[in-house]
Amino acid sequence: MMKKTAEQEARAFQKKVDAATPEQALAAANTVSRAADCTFKTLPHATEKDLKFAEDMSIEIKALTANTTDRFEAYWRAQELVSGAVFRDAKEPVCD
Fold first, then answer.
1. What is the pTM of this model?
2. How far is CA 43 from CA 3, 12, 39, 66, in A?
3. Exposed, middle or buried by CB within 10 Å (0-12, 13-18, 19+), for 89?
4. Residue partners of 20: CB distance under 8 A and separation at least 6
5. pLDDT tens across 60-87, in order?
6. If DSSP codes are grouped into helix, strand and coil, which group holds residue 93?
């Protein structure tokens, strides 16, 4: 299950890198949020070690996604496009 969760996070971060408009960036940010929710849903009785693993996994996926200067800058442009936005917890299933 963690492999599918990691793949969902990778797809979500890629959408953020590809976002060019505020609408795309907001949709991508919501996708990233759903992926994070999925990660923690996958670990319902997580220990501190499990949570650290999930956090490290997310950091590594983000680093691999923004692995060039252009991709890193695109990721942060998307971050700036959603600055100040409000996000809600997903009502639908969070895991793909």
1. 0.81
2. 13, 19, 7, 26
3. exposed
4. none
5. 999 999 999 999 999 999 989 988 877 7
6. coil
